[in-house]
From TrEMBL:
It comes from Candidatus Cetobacterium colombiensis. This is Sugar transferase. It is found in: Membrane. It is a multi-pass membrane protein. Its EC number is 2.7.8.-. The chain crosses the membrane at residues 12-42, 54-72, 78-98, 223-247. The keyword Lipid metabolism does not apply.
C-alpha cells in the first residue's frame, strides 16, 4: 500500500508539473490504475530481494511503457513520452529503495520434533526472508543455541510444553527473541487453522468469529455482495451470452445446470452453473470431480479454469442463498461422508457459501478427503478472521486466477 500510495503521489506531482489538460489527466488516472493492476497480476508487488530479478524489472518497464503508449495514442501529447520515462524510472528507483530498506534475513529455529516440526520445516521452505537453522530437541542447550546463532524467531513444534521447557523458552522470549506456537504460526503465516490440533477448548477461547454475531458486519457484507454481483453481472453479461451459445452448440443438453448444494445452517438450495460436463455425466450416480475429468467438455474445461461456469451463481448471491465470498457449497452426499472423516467439517456451514473463497485462492485443485480437509482449514481461517478487507483481498486473488486460468 505504501508503494502504491507513493507512486500515486509521484504521478500526481508529474501531472501537475507537465500541466496536462483535465481530459488527459482523467485518462491518465485510468492508465495509472491499469499499471497498478498489471503489476499486481504479474506478482510485481512483492518486495523480496531474492525473487526480484532482472526479468521482474523488465516486466515493470514493459507494463509502464505499454500503458503510457496507449495514453499517448489517446492524447497525442508529446510531453507524455517524457512523463512516462520519468515515472518508470522513479518506479524502478522506489521499489529498489524499498527492497533494500525492508528486506532482512531472519534466523529461525524450531524446538520440537515429529510431525509438527516437519510441517513447520516444509512451510519455511516456501518463505523468503528466513534462514532456518536446525536444532536437536534438547531443552538444556536451547538458550545458548539461540544466543550463539542470533535466532530472531523460535517456533514451537510442540502443542504442550513441560514446566522446564516453559521456564527456558520464557527466558528466551524476554531476551528479545520472538516465540511463536505451532497453531499461531499456522494462523498468522499460513493463514489457516489446522483442525487436527484444535479442540473445543481452543474454539471456545479463540478470538475472532465476529461474522457469526455482528449484525453490522453482516449488513456490510450483504451490501458488498449485492453491489459486486450487479457490477460483475453487468461487466460479464456479454461473456455469459457468448458462453451460453457455445455450451448449447458444443453438446446436447441444457445451458444452465442446477444442483442441490448445502448452504448456511445446512439448508439445501439450488446452485446454478453453466453446464461444463456432458449431459449424462452422473448417470451412474454422484462422483467427485477430478483433475482432467473426462466428463468435462472442451469448452467446459476452459470455463472451469477461468471460473466462467460460476457466473450464473450471481443470481444465487442476489437471492441471498450465497455470499459473493465464502466457503464453496458442497453436495449433501459428500458432506455426510466428509463429516465422518474430518473433524469440525460442519463448522463451514455457519456462514453462507460463496461464489469464490479463501480456500479457492490459497489451495490448488484437489478431489480427495485430504484436499477437503486442507480446504476446510482455509475456510475456518476465513470465518475466524473475516473482514471487508479480507473479502477485497480474495476478490483480487480471484481476479488473478481468472486472468491466468488457474481455476479448477
Amino acid at each position: 500500500m505504501f508503494y502504491i500510495g507513493s507512486l500515486g503521489i509521484i504521478f500526481w506531482i508529474l501531472s501537475s508539473f507537465f500541466s496536462l489538460t483535465i481530459e488527459t489527466s482523467l485518462i491518465g488516472i485510468g492508465i495509472y490504475g491499469f499499471v497498478m493492476l498489471g503489476m499486481y497480476l504479474f506478482d510485481l508487488m512483492n518486495f523480496d530481494v531474492p525473487k526480484y530479478s532482472i526479468k521482474n524489472y523488465l516486466t515493470v518497464i514493459a507494463i509502464n511503457l505499454l500503458m503510457f503508449f496507449i495514453w499517448f495514442l489517446t492524447s497525442w501529447d508529446f510531453w507524455l513520452i517524457v512523463f512516462s520515462i520519468l515515472f518508470t524510472a522513479v518506479a524502478i528507483l522506489l521499489r529498489t529503495v524499498i527492497n533494500i530498506a525492508i528486506y532482512r534475513i531472519k534466523p529461525v529455529t524450531i524446538y520440537g520434533n515429529g510431525e509438527l516440526k516437519t510441517n513447520l520445516e516444509e512451510s519455511l521452505k516456501k518463505l523468503d526472508g528466513y534462514k532456518y537453522i536446525d536444532y536437536s530437541n534438547d531443552i538444556s542447550e536451547l538458550e545458548s543455541f539461540v544466543e550463539e546463532n542470533n535466532i530472531k524467531l523460535l517456533l514451537l513444534g510442540k502443542i504442550k510444553l513441560e514446566e522446564k521447557e516453559i521456564e527456558t523458552i520464557l527466558k528466551i522470549k524476554l531476551r528479545n527473541t520472538q516465540v511463536m506456537g505451532y497453531l499461531d504460526y499456522m494462523l498468522e503465516i499460513e493463514k489457516k487453522i489446522e483442525v487436527s490440533y484444535i479442540n473445543e477448548e481452543w474454539l471456545l477461547n479463540a478470538y475472532g468469529f465476529e461474522i457469526l454475531t455482528s449484525k453490522i458486519q453482516n449488513k456490510i457484507k450483504r451490501v458488498f455482495d449485492i453491489g459486486m454481483s450487479i457490477v460483475i453481472g453487468f461487466l460479464t453479461f456479454p461473456i455469459m451470452i457468448l458462453a451460453a451459445i457455445i455450451v448449447k452448440l458444443e453438446s446436447p443438453g441444457s445451458v444452465i445446470y442446477s444442483q442441490a448444494r448445502v448452504g448456511e445452517n445446512e439448508k439445501e438450495f439450488l446452485v446454478y452453473k453453466f453446464r461444463s460436463m456432458r449431459q449424462d455425466a452422473e448417470k451412474d450416480g454422484a462422483k467427485w470431480a477430478q483433475k482432467n475429468d473426462p466428463r468435462v467438455t472442451k469448452f467446459g474445461n476452459f470455463m472451469r479454469k477461468t471460473r466462467i461456469d460460476e457466473l450464473p451463481q450471481l443470481l444465487n448471491v442476489i437471492r441471498g442463498d450465497m455470499s459473493f465470498i465464502g466457503p464453496r457449497p458442497e453436495r449433501m452426499v459428500f458432506i455426510k461422508e466428509l463429516e465422518k472423516q474430518i473433524p469440525y467439517y460442519g463448522l463451514r456451514h455457519m456462514v453462507k457459501p460463496g461464489l469464490t473463497g479463501w480456500a479457492q485462492v490459497m489451495y490448488p485443485y484437489g478431489a480427495t478427503v485430504e484436499d477437503a480437509k486442507n480446504k476446510l482449514e482455509y475456510d475456518l481461517y476465513y470465518i475466524k478472521c473475516y473482514s471487508l478487507y479480507l473479502d477485497i483481498v480474495i476478490l483480487f486473488k480471484t481476479l488473478k486466477t481468472v486472468v491466468f486460468g488457474k481455476g479448477r
